[in-house]
Amino acid sequence: MDLRVDDPTAPYVAELLAHHLAELAAVMGEHAFALDASGLAEPAVTFWTAWRGEKLVGFAALKLLGNGDGEVKSMRAAPEARGTGVGRALIDHVVAEARDRGLERLYLETGTSPLHQPAIDLYRKSGFLSCPPFADYESSPHNQFMVLELR
């Protein structure tokens, strides 16, 4: 699998990103905080795509929050690639990049629906622990927050 820094506004990302946003909106409503292409293209965000040959199989992003903190954003494996190690490769890459950048903590916000359970399991296996809301997030029955101490 090839992971590369990429442009979230690229046409080949649009379909998977639209699927990601629509699926989250369907189960989380107004509590879905996934970034759209313009949000993923902000200067504080690094966006990666995952490829198997010529096939886009996933993406993830790292948002710098300041004060030694970062946030995992928009982690997604393509529907046909779920359960094939794409998520593991992406989270391992984002965590390694956060460490390489000298971050102290890596946060994430995710949902509570059954749709999110495979991702939650992956985050926990990667060492993420539950934490209170961070940054500008507020608690809701649809969201949960996690942190990984990097130092």
Describe the fold and architecture:
This protein is α+β, with helices and mostly antiparallel strands and about 150 residues long. The chain has helices at about 10-30, 35-40, 85-100, 115-125, and strands spanning about 1-5, 45-50, 55-65, 70-75, 105-110, 130, 145-150. Strands 1-2-3-4-5-7-6 form a 7-stranded mixed beta sheet, with helices on both faces. α3 (about 85-100) links the parallel β4 and β5 (about 105-110). The radius of gyration is 14 Å and the shape is globular. The two termini are about 30 Å apart.
Describe this structure in a few short sentences.
By secondary structure, the chain is an alpha+beta fold. It has four helices and seven strands; from the N terminus they run E-H-H-E-E-E-H-E-H-E-E. It has helices at 11-28, 37-40, 86-100, 117-125; strands spanning 2-5, 45-52, 55-66, 69-77, 105-111, 129-130, 143-149.
Describe how the helices and strands are arranged.
Blueprint (H helix, E strand, L loop, with lengths): L1 E4 L5 H18 L8 H4 L4 E8 L2 E12 L2 E9 L8 H15 L4 E7 L5 H9 L3 E2 L12 E7 L2
Parallel strand pairs: 4-5
Antiparallel strand pairs: 1-2, 2-3, 3-4, 5-7, 6-7
